[in-house]
Amino acid sequence: MKPARRALLATGLFIVALLISTNAAASSQYEISVVSNAFEPAQLTIPAGKRVEVMVHNKTAMPAEFESYDFTAEKVVPGGTSIPVYIGPLKPGTYEFFNDFARGVKGHLSVK
User: Fold this and answer.
1) Which CATH number fits the domain 29-111, given the four candidates 2.60.40.420, 2.40.70.10, 3.40.50.300, 3.40.1280.10?
2) Mean pLDDT of 77-106
3) Given a cut of 60, is residue 20 above it in pLDDT?
4) Which H, E and C letters describe the chain, residue by residue?
């Protein structure tokens, strides 16, 4: 095989691999928002046995603390900002999370 063809083939394979990894990463990201006295959605479903990224958006002016004793997470999210929280891999079940700065604000993670 000529060097130019080999380089073109290698470039094509690299692009295909990059697209596959980008799509795999995108499917592992989930979103949740902190709004006035609630999480939206109040229940988030993620796959069992996989590490996922949950982007937490704080849509309030006050800081929030996304926390869970069930899956060991604790992240402060300043008002009006977003941060990623990495969760898992977890076994199937239901896990609670809450806003530690507003203890009545709770949600559930459903792992299937």
Assistant:
1) 2.60.40.420
2) 96
3) no
4) CCHHHHHHHHHHHHHHHHHHHHHHHHHCEEEEEEECCEEECCEEEECCCCCEEEEEEECCCCCEEEEECCCCEEEEECCCCEEEEEECCCCCEEEEEEECCEEEEEEEEEEC
